[in-house]
Amino acid sequence: MLVAGFPAGSFQTNCYVVAPAAGEECVVIDPGQDAVGDLDALLGEHRLKPVAVLLTHGHIDHVWSVAPVCGARDVPAWIHPDDRDLLSNPAKGFPPQAGGVFGGLKLSEPDDVRELSDGAVLSLAGLELTVEHRPGHTRGSVTFRAPAEDIQVLFAGDLLFAGSIGRTDLPGGDHAAMLRSLAKTLTLPDETLVLPGHGPQTTIGRERATNPFLGDVAPSAGPTRGL
């Protein structure tokens, strides 16, 4: 399996492309702010053809470029229904006092939006990606899990980071739900490779052993990454 990515825009949100191999079809995960140019270059480098865009959640730093990416290639976007309204109204993901920053930003849904459901297995681009609803950061947050040779790869969005967890203080955030979602995710094998929405990759085993916010799956302080 080929996985490549880059941090997009001022939020440094990780955008990933996933394919069985170079020169084949692929999926794009979380095309964030100003991602189009870097994404086009990455697709050209590996000779990849996108067939879908997958979104771990609806915050603007993860969906900023979804409409132009989908529109340029006539492919669908997949998002959990609980976050779908954020595609066209990103200000709903922020408190009222942030309206001056994002309130004037106009985004639109792609022409073809499809809804993710917990436990679904998406067969796309020769891949099988398991969808797991993991609310807490937002109501519609999900992860995508894929087998890769002898390990699993988890595209974690803003659920789990190297050394931190997703914040829950924005509209739609729920700290208790976040803890339940983390507890489910930590049942994955230690060697599971975690590719988060921000920052470097890690593994489930490393985070279980060293992440200061996962003691008894009960963080003692606020998170540090992600919108």
Strand order of the largest sheet: 1-2-3-4-5-6
Helix count, DSSP H or I runs of 4 or more residues: 6
Shape: globular
Structural category: alpha/beta
Query: How far apart are the first and last residues' alpha carbons, in Å?
Result: 29 Å
Give a concise summary.
By secondary structure, this protein is α/β, with parallel strands linked by helices. It has six helices and 14 strands.
Question: What do you see in this structure?
Answer:
The chain has 227 residues and is α/β, with parallel strands linked by helices. Helices cover 20% and strands 29% of the residues. It contains six helices and 14 strands. Strands 1-2-3-4-5-6 form a six-stranded mixed beta sheet, with helices on one face. A six-stranded mixed beta sheet has the order 7-8-9-10-13-14. A two-stranded antiparallel sheet has the order 11-12. Strand 8 and strand 9 (142-148) form a beta hairpin. The model has no long low-confidence stretch (mean pLDDT 91). It holds the Pfam family Lactamase_B. It comes from Microbispora amethystogenes.
